[in-house]
Structure formats: structure tokens, C-alpha cells
């Protein structure tokens, strides 16, 4: 069970809703992923062409928890405004704080992310900041009262997987709120590793939406996250330098 | 009246007076939208009670796909 603030979820996979080849494929991918939390972005509506389809309209919003992001914000003030716009929809109290500090790497601005988190916690939001793998910042976000920390595995959409498992481990060790690995996941193996390291959940988008078969990949991610979590709970064996036989040495009928 | 609607200067028909009228005029009253007038974010209930004035700055946003 994944607990974020006052909310509980069966699934530990949080799924992004951007860049799918079609709404039909997206719907099916969301379905098989069994994700309960879906992320969205907040944007100006093209009101002069209102006939455009929107994925949210095709979704049973009672079945899912919406996690809007503040993507597009470059300052804490902008992030807070987007969060308030999202909340005014009446559909959600959760917010993914995303304040980008570098257009090329899409890495978050640590100072503005912390400021936005402090402000939104005060405003009563359930706050999930997207952060880098900075251990101290993750701790400060916790101290600011965030409800989950979301360190990136590697740059957004890069599919490089977990490039700093050491830091991720430190973040998990010190965590008093759920740690959700967000961004950079490329394969089911990456997602499983995040869970094996002790992450409480994984948020991904491109790894599914841009896969050759997004529906199949959604299923693969679901299974990988479940497998990784089970492996973590089961407790893996220590790594040893030399072999240890699995079969008994006694009672051999040879020699 | 003329208003700045999502960054575009727009002449609204005479009968459009309230925020809820704007949503009906653009046929988006059934959709999930959030409206901000001159920097003030409105609740759904306030759509019907917020009267617009000339040169108001209106932003209408919604949820789109994102990660």
C-alpha cells in the first residue's frame, strides 16, 4: 500500500499522460498499467477551437487520482499559481512541484522548488516535489512538510535509468515520506531496480508513451514495479566474491 | 466589451456579461476548465457571479497530457 498524505493506493506506478500515439492506445495503456495516479499539465485552453479532443474527458475521473504538475514554471511564484489553478478545478488536491532550472537538461531549480514546496504545504496541498538526486535537498523538502519526494533517476525523457543509485539509496534511507523515482526511467529493468533499492513508487511517462508498443510496455512496467517491490520486501542476498554451492556436498554417489 | 482572452484581444457580444456567459459563448461550459480574471483564480461557483468589464484579462486553462 502506497500512502501519500491522507491518500492510499494499491499501485506503486504513477503514469504520465503526455505524448501517446493516440487516445485509444493511451486509454489501453493506462488500463493495463493499473496505475491509480495520473499526471497532467495545466495549459491555456485553445478556446477558439474547442472541438479538440482532450484525454481527461475520456477518463472516469472517479477511478483515478489526478496529479497535476507545475511544468512550465521557472519560479516558485509561477509554480504556486499553476498549483492553485489546478486545485480550482475541484478535481484534485495533489500537486507535483516541477520548477525547471535548465532548458537543456530539464533539471529542477533546487531553490525555487524548495520555496514552492514550503508555500504549497502552507496552502494545504498534498505536495510531491520533483527534485534531482540531491540528498540534502531531499531532506530539506521533507522538513518543509512535503508528502513525498520525487528524485529523478536521470534527466526527463532521457531513458538513461538510475544514474546515481548511491544517492538514491541515501535519499531512501533518510526518508520519512514516500520516495517516488520520477523521470529518466527507460526500461522495466530500471523501474524494478528503483523498487529493489527501496523506492515506494515510480513515476514514468516517456518510457511507456514512446515505446514501440506502449500497451505492452505499460504491462511490463506494472509487473517490473511489482517484482521489484516484492524483491525488496523479500530481502536480497549479500553479494559474495566466490561461489557457494546450492546442492549438498554430502551423500554424493561419485568417487 | 473588449477583453484580453488567453492573450488575444477579443470583442465579446453584448449579451456576454458574466464569466459563465463566456464559457457558454465558446461552448466550453461542459468542460473541465479553470478561469482566472485579472490574476484572480475563480471557483466554479464564482463563474456565475463574476461580472466582466472592458479590458479585463481572462485566462482559461485546462488539463493536458503531461508527465
What does this structure look like?
Chain A is of the alpha/beta class and 255 residues long. The longest helix of chain A has 21 residues. The N and C termini of chain A lie far apart (54 Å). The model of chain B has no long low-confidence stretch (mean pLDDT 95). In chain B, a hairpin with a 2-residue loop joins strand 3 and strand 4. The relative contact order of chain B is 0.31. Chain B is of the alpha+beta class. The radius of gyration of chain B is 12 Å and the shape is globular. Chains A and B meet through strand 4 and helix 2 of A and strand 5 of B. Strand 4 of chain A pairs antiparallel with strand 5 of chain B.
Structure at a glance:
In chain A, 35% of the residues lie in helices and 16% in strands. Chain A is of the alpha/beta class and 255 residues long. Chain A is globular.
Strand and helix layout:
The complex is a heterodimer of chains A (255) and B (67).
Chain A: E1 2-4, E2 7-9, E3 13-15, H1 23-33, E4 37-44, E5 65-68, H2 76-87, E6 94-97, H3 110-122, E7 126-131, H4 135-143, E8 150-151, H5 165-173, E9 180-182, H6 188-196, E10 201-204, H7 206-209, H8 214-234
Parallel strand pairs in A: 3-4, 3-10, 4-5, 6-7, 7-8, 9-10
Antiparallel strand pairs in A: 1-2
Chain B: E1 2-5, E2 8-11, H1 19-25, E3 34-37, E4 40-41, H2 46-49, E5 57-65
Parallel strand pairs in B: 1-5
Antiparallel strand pairs in B: 1-2, 3-4, 3-5
What pattern of helices and strands is seen along the backbone of chain A?
EEEHEEHEHEHEHEHEHH
Helix content of chain B: 10-25%
* Uncertain regions spanning at least 5 consecutive residues of chain A: none
> What is the gyration radius of chain A calculated from CA atoms?
20 Å
**What's the assembly state of these chains?**
heterodimer
Distance between the termini of chain B: 38 Å
Shape designation of chain A: globular
The helix content of chain A is 25-40%
**What is the chain-wise order of helices and strands of chain B?**
EEHEEHE
